[in-house]
Amino acid sequence: MDSKVLNMTTQQLLAPFRRAINDYDMIQEGDCIAVGVSGGKDSLTLLALLHAYARFCPQHFTIKAFTIDLGFEGADYSRIEQYCVNLGIEYHVEKTTIGQAIFEKTPNNPCSLCSKMRRGALNTLLLKHGCNKLALGHHADDVIETFFLSLLYEGRLSTFAPISYMSRTGVTVIRPLIYVEEWQIASYAKDLPVYANPCPADKNTQREYMKQLIKTLNQNITNSKQSIIGAVENADRYNLWDNMLEKYRQELKLPDE
Fold this sequence. Notes:
- By secondary structure, the chain is α/β, with parallel strands linked by helices.
- The chain has a single domain, classed as HUPs (Rossmann fold, 3-Layer(aba) Sandwich), CATH 3.40.50.620.
- The protein is 47% helix and 12% strand.
- The chain is built from 10 helices and 6 strands, in the order H-E-H-E-H-E-H-H-E-H-E-E-H-H-H-H.
- The chain has a 6-stranded mixed beta sheet, sandwiched between helices.
C-alpha cells in the first residue's frame, strides 16, 4: 500500500506492536531495554512506540536509547537527542571508526561486516549501562527480505527470530515491530526526527535489490507478502524433505532401519 494513503497513528501501530510483545513474551517486570537508534524511520518508530507502550504495559520497564556513530562526516544527532529529552529517555552516542574500517576491508559488500561491528559496539555499550534487553527495529518487510536473502544467496531457509538470547553477553534481543509493515512505519515516522543515512552504500545493497524484487512480486501476486509471513510463522505448514522418509515409513508402518 502507498504510504501516502494513510497517516498512521500511535494507537493504530500499537495494536500489532503489542501483539508481537505478547505473542513472544518479550518484556518482563524490571527489564532495562536498550533501543538501538540508527536515526532511521524504523528505530525511531520503535523508540516512540516502546515509550507509548510503557504507559499502559502491566510490566514496569526502563528504556535507554543508544546510537553507534560510524564516523561518517557530518553526523549530527542533536535532533534525536532533543527528542529523547522530550520523552524523558536516557540517550547515549558512542563514536567509532567502524565506517572507515568496513570500507577498507569489504568495499563492495560492507553491510554484513558493518552489522556485526555495530552490534558488537552496541552490546558493549548497553551492558555498560545496565541493560538486559536490546530492542531492534526490524519490521515485517525485513523478515521477508532476510528470508529471501538467505534462500537466494546462501541456500538456507532462515530469517531472524522475534526474540533470541545471546549467551555470550546475557542479553536478550527483541523485535516488537515484526507485525508492522514498512509502509506503515514510513507513514508514521513523518513527524519523527529521522536522520538521513550518510552511508555511501545506502540504497545500493543486496537488501535494497531484494526489497525491490519483493515489491514487484507483491504487485503481481496479491497478498504474497502476507503469505510469506504466514509460512514463516506457522510451523504446521512446513513440508520439506528432511522428514519425508520418516513420514513415509510411518504411513506404511515400516520398521525403522
